[in-house]
Amino acid sequence: MIKTKRVYEPKEDADGLRILVDRLWPRGVKKDKIDLWLKDIAPSDELRKFYHETKDFEAFKKKYIEELQKKDIKELLDLIKQNTITLLYASKDPQNNATVLKEYLEWTLEKQK
User: Fold this and answer.
1) Residues sharing a CB contact under 8 Å with residue 62, sequence separation 6 or more, in sequence order
2) Cβ–Cβ under 8 Å, residues 90 and 6
3) Chain mean position to CA 84
4) How many of the other CB atoms lie within 10 Å of CB of 105?
5) Which pTM value belongs to this model?
6) Alpha carbon 80 to chain centroid distance?
7) In three state form, how does the secondary structure of 43-108 look?
8) How far apart are CA 106 and CA 63, in angstroms?
9) How far is CA 107 from the centre of its chain?
10) What is the pLDDT of residues 5-25, one digit of tens each?
11) Which of 48, 17, 47 is nearest to 34 (CA)?
12) pLDDT tens-digit profile of 62-81?
């Protein structure tokens, strides 16, 4: 099971493995609130800046998926098969890289069946 959650929300047992998927460490968050930080799976700096400037989520989503297709996500897929995971993000916007990543991972897992 894959969930998404804002990193500033309280930690819960139901979160399972808590994985930060942002390139930058969120302000004020202690390391014990996060089990794993996969900053390399986050959007590139160029793409992150593009989204902040344009606010074009559909274009961001398309470009981020293109980036994800070039990344090695095997480790992450293996973790998902063994655990409930929660993809953590700092953004206040509910449309963000973690939601795109969740959708991409679910699609990839479905395709592997």
Assistant:
1) none
2) yes
3) 14
4) 19
5) 0.92
6) 13
7) CCHHHHHHHHHHCCHHHHHHHHHHHHCCCCCHHHHHHHHHCCEEEEECCCCCCCHHHHHHHHHHHH
8) 18
9) 14
10) 999 999 999 999 999 999 999
11) 17
12) 999 999 999 999 989 999 99
Give residue 49's Cα distance to chain centre.
Answer: 17
Q: Are 47 and 64 in contact (CB under 8 A)?
A: yes
Sequence length of the chain is 113
> Which residue's structure tokens are 């090695």?
72
112, containing H or E segment: helix 97-112
CB under 8 Å to 100, separation ≥6 — which residues? 60, 61, 64, 65
Amino acid letter, 15? D
Yes or no: say if 70 and 44 are a contact pair by the CB < 8 Å rule: no
Question: What tokens were used for 90?
Answer: 């700092």
